[in-house]
Amino acid sequence: MSEPMIRATGLVKRYKDVEALAGLDLAVPEGKVLALLGPNGAGKTTAVRCLTTLLEPDGGSASVAGIDVLAEPAAAKARIGLSGQYAAVDEHLTAHENLVMIGRLYHLGRQRARTRAQELLERFDLTEFASRPTKTYSGGQRRRLDLACALVAAPPVIVLDEPTTGLDPRSRQLMWDVIRELVGEGATLLLTTQYLEEADVLADDIVVIDHGREIAHGTADELKAQTGGQRIEVVLASAVDTEAAFGVLNEVAVGEVKVSGGGRELEAAVGDEAASDLLRVLQGFERDAVKVLDVGLRRPTLDDVFLTLTGHESAETDR
């Protein structure tokens, strides 16, 4: 097998008494997408900074496109396109000026830099705003420009640190479409995210981390299977039906039925036959005259995964 395009072996990073990375291993084959999934504070951004030469790890090794990140940081950096959590663009320049400037920094030449800027403006649906200062852009427009900037030199390795956090649904879908196109063209991606749905849509493989350690590794379906697959969620019209609804849900539940909201909100994890289980629940409610305001299926959230894997929910601060 060929060497992975992105590899981390035993990465360790400490901030005083905090161990942000505790021996993390990652491997991303060429042309694939690895999603690094975890809550705020899990160490995702620290891992990204170590892999992209922005931080020097305290232990372990890392390589990008076969280049040792610690031994040859400049050569490694030239092969990486990075889009961080916050758009790193000059807000006083227009989108076109930002892209041309980056092209010149990569020594593309004046004409090639302008041509490449126009290509990326069209690709990211930014042509309409190309002559406006970036400080007037919406959050979604700034994120799209930031990703465009990361692609100016057409790097073989792209690292996206929570690229869709805070975006509206349309902007998020546009970003997903662009990421799919990049992979289709042969790029290798490392994607950090807090959203299981995003990892499910985009990633070939997922590594879940907590406190800087890998706690699970697999496809989205494999991870969801560890949390009991989908959930049936019910909102009752009245708490007087709690006991009856609990009994119906308990017939199909994988594990414990959760009750909250003063007895009016119930949740049950179900197995592979989720649609059939939902039908059984609806039939049971009709049989027992259980009155509901809302009932439906949903997929596990990140907190569901973490609660199952670690026994706690996501943290509140990132590193």
Automatic annotation (TrEMBL):
<keyword id="KW-0547">Nucleotide-binding</keyword>
<dbReference type="InterPro" id="IPR027417">
    <property type="entry name" value="P-loop_NTPase"/>
</dbReference>
<dbReference type="InterPro" id="IPR025302">
    <property type="entry name" value="DrrA1/2-like_C"/>
</dbReference>
<dbReference type="InterPro" id="IPR003593">
    <property type="entry name" value="AAA+_ATPase"/>
</dbReference>
<keyword id="KW-0046">Antibiotic resistance</keyword>
<keyword id="KW-1278">Translocase</keyword>
<dbReference type="InterPro" id="IPR003439">
    <property type="entry name" value="ABC_transporter-like_ATP-bd"/>
</dbReference>
<dbReference type="Pfam" id="PF13732">
    <property type="entry name" value="DrrA1-3_C"/>
</dbReference>
<dbReference type="InterPro" id="IPR050763">
    <property type="entry name" value="ABC_transporter_ATP-binding"/>
</dbReference>
<dbReference type="Pfam" id="PF00005">
    <property type="entry name" value="ABC_tran"/>
</dbReference>
<keyword id="KW-0813">Transport</keyword>
<keyword id="KW-1003">Cell membrane</keyword>
<keyword id="KW-0067">ATP-binding</keyword>
<keyword id="KW-0472">Membrane</keyword>
<feature type="domain" description="ABC transporter">
    <location>
        <begin position="6"/>
        <end position="236"/>
    </location>
</feature>
<protein>
    <submittedName>
        <fullName>Daunorubicin resistance protein DrrA family ABC transporter ATP-binding protein</fullName>
    </submittedName>
</protein>
<comment type="similarity">
    <text>Belongs to the ABC transporter superfamily. Drug exporter-1 (DrugE1) (TC 3.A.1.105) family.</text>
</comment>
<dbReference type="GO" id="GO:0005524">
    <property type="term" value="F:ATP binding"/>
</dbReference>
<dbReference type="InterPro" id="IPR017871">
    <property type="entry name" value="ABC_transporter-like_CS"/>
</dbReference>
<dbReference type="InterPro" id="IPR005894">
    <property type="entry name" value="DrrA"/>
</dbReference>
